[in-house]
Specification:
It is a single chain. This protein is α/β, with parallel strands linked by helices. The protein is built from eight helices and seven strands. The chain has a single domain, classed as Aconitase, domain 4 (Alpha-Beta Barrel).
């Protein structure tokens, strides 16, 4: 069963990945041990593929860096469900193929121990058996996610045109 990691409002990029590592860690295997180390020291060692992060408003605010989104995707996070996202993080997450779901009602409904199910194409999320809707994601964004990020997606499109 997937674990849900729940955090509050204004989780910034330094909380997701400390800025002191920005220039020394650029590959996923270098980023993973430092994910959320100042916010939640257990995260990096306990996160598993398929886990979900839930958070409040303005998730990913702060400086513009790829490492937080790259690290969460590399850790196998199924999705980040938040009340809202900082726009710069939102774009970085798309580039990395990390699924972001904006659904304040689902975040408010979550209680420890609840299971979370997602259907990004249909725009639905279930929390503890209760269903919520969010705007379904454009096919292009879903395709970027399936490809593993913008670069693999763009490379595949170029190959298909040859």
């Amino acid at each position: 069963m997937s674990k849900v990691w729940k955090y509050g409002d204004d989780v910034n990029t330094d909380m997701l990945f400390p800025g002191k590592y920005t220039y020394s860690c650029s590959k996923a295997e270098q980023i993973l041990p430092h994910l959320l180390e100042d916010l939640d020291p257990q995260f990096a060692s306990e996160v598993r593929p398929g886990d979900v992060v839930m958070a409040g408003k303005n998730f990913g605010c702060g400086s513009s860096r790829e490492q937080p989104a790259l690290g969460l995707r590399a850790a196998g996070i199924e999705a980040v469900v938040a009340k809202s996202f900082a726009r710069i993080f939102f774009r970085a997450a798309i580039n990395q193929g990390l699924l972001l779901v904006e659904c304040p009602e689902a975040v408010d409904a979550f209680r420890a121990g609840d299971t979370v199910g997602l259907d990004p194409a249909a725009g639905t999320i279930t929390v503890g058996g209760k269903g919520f809707s969010f705007p379904s994601l454009p096919e292009e964004i879903l395709a970027i996610r399936r490809a593993g990020g913008l670069l693999p997606y763009a490379r595949a499109k170029l190959r298909s045109r040859r």
